[in-house]
From TrEMBL:
Protein name stated in the entry: Chemotaxis protein CheW
InterPro entries in UniProt: CheW-like_dom_sf, CheW-lke_dom
Organism the protein comes from: Microbulbifer elongatus
Residues covered by the CheW-like domain: 21-127
Amino acid sequence: MSGNGIEALPTTEMPQEVSSLLLPLADGQMLVPVDTLSEIIALQSPVSAFDAPDWYMGELHWRELRLPLVSFEVMRGNAMPTLRSNCRIAVLSSGSPDGDLPFFAVVLQGTPRLVRVTPEELAGREGECAMGELMHVALSGEAAVIPDLGTIEEACLAYRSAR
């Protein structure tokens, strides 16, 4: 697969507009469809995870589930962001509702912003995708990353099964 990931999109007719969210990170923004976000919750300290990768910050209790709390910045190879009072936690659907990990949580540096994505406003950007990234994009000139939710889910499950 080449760096832009365009070939991976299905050839079915694309919707004219997709309601999406820009999720603020310490090192940029993540772009996800609205239906990927399950809930925004207040920042809380996760239960520590033993011998976890740096990006696996621990686990949260949410709706009778134990969710991995992930630092997307660290997963991408950047430094652990400072957790400030404006930080929030986004509970995201992994895309496999019947799988072993239907949801995981990501630390946000602020409040998500609702955006309408149309094919005219979205452009691929050059750049090597790091772990957890599906594609680098520009939305009306704003840089963002589309996360690879399946890869994040697999990485969390791989850690959990190894302990």
